[in-house]
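pls ignore typos typing on phone
adenosine-5'-diphosphate + seq
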Amino acid sequence: MNDRAGSDAEGPRDEGRFAVAREAGGTLHETPGIHRLLVESVRDYAIFVLDRTGHILTWNPGAQRLKGYTADEVIGRHFSIFYPRDAVERGHPVHELEIAEAEGRYEEEGWRIRKDGTRFWANVIITALRDDDGELIGYAKITRDLTDRRAAHVTAIADARKVAEAEAASRSKSEFLAAMSHELRTPLSSIGAYIDILAYGIQGPLNEAQRDAVERIRRGQQHLLALINDLLNFGMVDAGRISYHIAPVHLCEVIESVMPLIEPLAHGRRIAVDWQARDADVVALADRTRLEQVLLNLVSNAIKYNEPGGSVAVRHVLRDGRAIMEVSDTGAGIPAEDTEAIFEPFTQLGRSLTSPHEGTGLGLAISRDLARGMNGDLTVRSAVGEGSTFTLTLPAGE
Ligand code: ADP
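k done
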């Protein structure tokens, strides 16, 4: 092999020799055929020489391993056999030699074909070889298989793109929800105001039937408003747009501020709600407003999915260094196979068009997300026919 073969890839020729010679006690550089030995020991690179027209003159073990041809099969053939057909038709291999001749060196990455027809992603360097008079005598070609690296690279790009797309989708979803709920809330608020005007008899007294109709409109309006608030809330929680103001919170105080909101519902459905005395207080590290939201949802569910005459108990306790709030009811209970599903958005058990329960099926999904957002969790234990206990666990505070 000509001395200059591969000299670009190996660094300046003399420096290379010097390093080899020093390592081997200054004798190797005199060994005849040292470059040939070097090339033949390389298994990860295909290193071979082409004549001026691109026909293969030498072949190393790396080339055999990479491309699948033995030396006998390949020497004398044109190097365009390694290229995909469309590249050959475009004159790509010949074009590479022209650039290498004009500029001394050509490098690219692209698909190449093995003997068995499979493709690999190659890094290719072609170096023009010239004799001492500067006359072109051929080319040295070094090829590396970068298929794995490219696959990893492509996967990384695809992953990054997927993440970006998911983020954009989630952003536009929550922006859509925010815009929609604003658009919907504005007319609903004015409907509410006109309901009040009618109900208070400001424009004249109402008879019994009219009053009944106005109350039905009001219930519908309030239900829609609650639904929209739930959707907006879910959109925000889902998009991770909620910020938490974590501070020590007395669970007793949280319960005391939620109970007055619950009483009308409990009274209407004849459910007794029982909660612990103040002296058993526990302090949690949480966002008070979010905590109230979770408790309100758990207690209203415990009332909604209960039987008239049933009861609800709210307990709090410090267990294993965690602040725990439990909401138990004597309702119908939840079948074991559904105890995870109820925390999924829009899941409503036994929901049918004639079902008397209203809601969005978002309450528990939001509550669990909020609990987890405060470094806590929300779980349920339930027995069909006996009732359910929802357990909210939070970090304990001082
Ligand atoms: P919503 O109450 O709006 O339907 P939730 O996410 O709060 O939505 O609850 C999801 C479903 O879980 C409810 O539709 C109901 O079927 C079931 N569920 C929730 N709480 C209870 C409970 N305390 N007892 C029995 N079933 C419940």
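Residues 1-26 have pLDDT under 50 and may be disordered. The radius of gyration is 39 Å. more later
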